[in-house]
Amino acid sequence: MKKHRKPTAKKRPSSARLQSFPGDNLRVVYTEKQIQKRVRELAEQINRDYKGKTLHMVGILENCFLFMADLVRALKMPVICTFLKAEMRDSSSGMVPLREIMYAPKVEATGKDVLLVDGILQSGVTLDHLCRYILGQNPNSVRTAMLIEKTDERKVDVAVDYLGFKTTAKFLVGYGLGYQERYRNLPCIARIA
After folding, report:
1. pLDDT tens-digit profile of 156-167?
2. Backbone dihedral angles phi then psi of residue 140, each to the nearest 5 degrees
3. pTM here?
4. Strand-strand pairing, 26-30 and 189-192
5. CA 150 from chain center: how many Å?
6. Does the 41-88+98-168 domain belong in CATH 3.40.190.10?
7. How far apart are CA 141 and CA 22, in angstroms?
8. ∠ CA(160), CA(162), CA(167), 5° rounding?
9. Which of 32, 63, 127, 137 is the most buried (most CB within 10 A)?
């Protein structure tokens, strides 16, 4: 008697072309399955590190929203969620270029365990500035969680405590990351080829 094998879905290689947006030439870098697995692993680490504490998660909009939503659902301690938006203004003072970084709304971090969450870390300038801003309020602790670090674009050496993936891929979209406000709804992360 012959045993029949169940047909299995073919695994899509990470370079597979996305059919969701025909003509846009998107190539998968991290599949939905890879992302969900990594988010669960990060949540396990966070659960161990913050056991018995209340965690104040501060999401940096817009890139964090899907990553933070999935991460929050996997946590087992009390979690308070806050979202802020970083706004940058470039100007100059004489011949010296200046960049002003502001956050809205204000975050109250005094005496709290704070976890800063973003979908992507590029230069590190904004994250470093935000860490300094939070540390100036005397929190119990400040840590960072990033889904993706673009290693070749770092300008500031800022610590990342919980990191999903490292990459040098350009123009990443999906899973909350957008390009000209498009593609945030993709369940995977793709590069625009």
Report:
1. 989 899 999 999
2. -65, -45
3. 0.81
4. antiparallel
5. 11
6. no
7. 45
8. 70
9. 63
